[in-house]
């Protein structure tokens, strides 16, 4: 096979390998090895921008006698993290049958506070979701601080009042950063800069002036006088996925993988459409009733794009798989692909 | 204001196709693929992996303008397979690889939770509560 022998060593056939070094409620740190940089970076990009969550998108202000302008408060409300537990069952508003919004595509939260004392703080704890939501925790403001208050929205002085209604909708961070599930994603590779992808600025000695990466001990430091390896490629990537609170950090990773698989599956579907006439053709047309029925929603019913060919029963969902990563018909390709 | 709606970055317009193939006549066995409403996430992923694939002579991508969510991928093969086949193979292989990554991650994560359970049962109870998401 006309295939670069450099990449043909045994480890290549194992596929990506994960090693988790820290996992708690806030973050998960892991090392991804045996993958190329494009593979790792696509996962990073997808986790940043394309995982659906829920955030306040519409605010109807009934009374605002605080010192802050309506739109200022509306913007602050949008940025409050809401629990996205069960968001896969929520429709996108633009794809819902309703006129503007309904309980199938939104969660309503109300805020009503009046200051009777001298001064009071209104925080996300005071945002109350109304009862008619599709799943129990969806849209509940995330409260992670010790006092159990959540994020501060505004402060009121005596006799000032705020009364408003918020509509939280499903979306992705590509549309607005308020839908981002991750507070930050750390991504690094090659801690000793052996590949020279970075140029370290220095006063007199780069080694002395730059702090070592926390992953520096994980990899062999360069030998004194070692010649530059022109064939070397990045192979180990260190992720640090920190959640904003709306989705647990490990779920950000698994959801990111799902979204990326759906994107690729959509391409396969469209590219091979003419080949096998199994009548799954028109995405824009009416969808068959079993469309939303297929399993636990890795196909994300009502997602914008044409990945929709039927829940877990899709060609690449694999029969009876419990996770979206269940066996695929292409499972064999996982082991070394084209070898 | 004349700013385009931001959902136009990822929502196909009515009748728009996700991906179209245009045969490039300047080179043999070469096709251009236009991906609508996509970005470097797929562009770089696909072209970098195509470069390593057998029977692919050349692959590359461009995003002509950062404001325009369209990716062009050009693929030249050696003639044993068509560029379209090469692209489909890469997609299938990547779906499988990411699937493996997902399984690997979940396995590692479960192991980690199991290990933590022994150490601090209290803290882990909270983690478990979240696990059902």
From TrEMBL, chain A:
Entries under InterPro entries matching the protein: DNA-dir_RNA_pol_30-40kDasu_CS, DNA-dir_RNA_pol_insert, DNA-dir_RNA_pol_RpoA/D/Rpb3, RBP11-like, RNAP_Rpo3/Rpb3/RPAC1, RNApol_insert_sf, Rpo3/RPB3_RNA_Pol_subunit
Compositional bias of kind Gly residues: 308-321, 329-339
Family annotation (Pfam families): RNA_pol_A_bac, RNA_pol_L
Region listing for Disordered, in residue ranges: 272-339
Molecular function terms, GO-annotated: DNA binding; DNA-directed RNA polymerase activity; protein dimerization activity
Domain DNA-directed RNA polymerase RpoA/D/Rpb3-type: 27-270
Cellular component GO terms, alphabetical: RNA polymerase II, core complex
Subcellular location: Nucleus
Alphabetical keyword list: DNA-directed RNA polymerase, Nucleus, Transcription
Coiled coil: none
GO BP terms in the entry: transcription by RNA polymerase II
Domain of life, per lineage: Eukaryota
Family: Belongs to the archaeal Rpo3/eukaryotic RPB3 RNA polymerase subunit family.
PANTHER family xrefs: DNA-DIRECTED RNA POLYMERASE, DNA-DIRECTED RNA POLYMERASE II SUBUNIT RPB3
Oligomer status and interactors: Component of the RNA polymerase II (Pol II) complex consisting of 12 subunits.
NCBIfam families, alphabetized: PRK00783.1
Protein name (database record): DNA-directed RNA polymerase II subunit RPB3
Species this chain originates from: Bombardia bombarda
Lineage, broadest ranks: Eukaryota, Fungi, Dikarya, Ascomycota, Pezizomycotina
UniProtKB/TrEMBL annotation, chain B:
Gene3D superfamilies according to UniProt: RNA polymerase, RBP11-like subunit
Species this chain originates from: Bombardia bombarda
Protein name: DNA-directed RNA polymerase
Similarity comment text for this entry: Belongs to the archaeal Rpo11/eukaryotic RPB11/RPC19 RNA polymerase subunit family.
Entry's Gene Ontology cellular component terms: RNA polymerase II, core complex
Subcellular location: Nucleus
Domain DNA-directed RNA polymerase RBP11-like dimerisation: 31-102
Sorted UniProt keywords: DNA-directed RNA polymerase, Nucleus, Transcription
Record PROSITE patterns: RNA_POL_L_13KD (PS01154)
GO biological process: transcription by RNA polymerase II
Species lineage: Eukaryota, Fungi, Dikarya, Ascomycota, Pezizomycotina
Single GO MF annotation: protein dimerization activity
